[in-house]
Design a protein that fits this description.
alpha+beta; 8-stranded antiparallel sheet; 5-stranded antiparallel sheet; about 15% helix
Amino acid sequence: MKAFLFSTCFSILISFQLFAQSDSLAVINAEWQKEKISQGVVLKTFWFQNSLFNSNQFVSILEIKQKKKLEFDIGYDPKKLITTSDFGTQANAIAALNGTFFDIANGGSVDFIKSDGIVINENRLGKNGSRAGHQGSALIINKGRITIAKWDGTPNWEKSLAGEDIMVSGPLLIIDQIHEKLDANNAFNKTRHPRTAVAIAKNKRILFITVDGRNTNSAGMSLFELTKLMSWLNANDAINLDGGGSTTLWIKNYKENGVVNFPTDNKKWDHEGQRKVANVVLLKKKK
């Protein structure tokens, strides 16, 4: 009986390893459709047809060299909700990616936002003063360049960060190539949804990433799956941003309306279903 149980467990372990290997190879060997957007900016898209995490997945990646003529910025409105594409257009940006979590009813970010040294929104904490799971890390923009930082446990951590622009978000997925521990009992972490992420690759390039979901064409990912994807994309650091219906990647003058992925708010597999959001991450030409 013990021999049988050992054999069964060993077979299951081997199966999991084979699936993981197959998934990683699917990402590494994918024939990504590549389009040059501008100098140092390349769009990569691929539709994994039942070949990633045993599901359909549509993944979009904007790969950006941190060059002197390019800079990152935060677009926001303290109260009003605006589509990602409108944020991008108003800022005359090259690209825009939906940002961190926000108050759908009243507008404004529920996570700390600082822009040009001015605090726009504070963290909205729990009744006991605890942070939400998406308040444990931050995107930092200093002199137009992006870094990712992990909360150090102190109450006013984000206010001490050296950056002109700061967007608290999360959960943090990877820092210094080490996977962060995620709560396996948290439905937000383990359920598949559309996802938005920013990663800093080992070659120092910045990746704006969307994973579509809530559709037969693309299932979406759990945060555990998203972390694995980040690792297979050679991320040194990676942070999860607001996902679900907010997930949108927009590029100026890209095809019809500039939207690369398939936002879900209209429940159709097209590029028209943007949700209005409170903030975005922008890629701009330096003035």
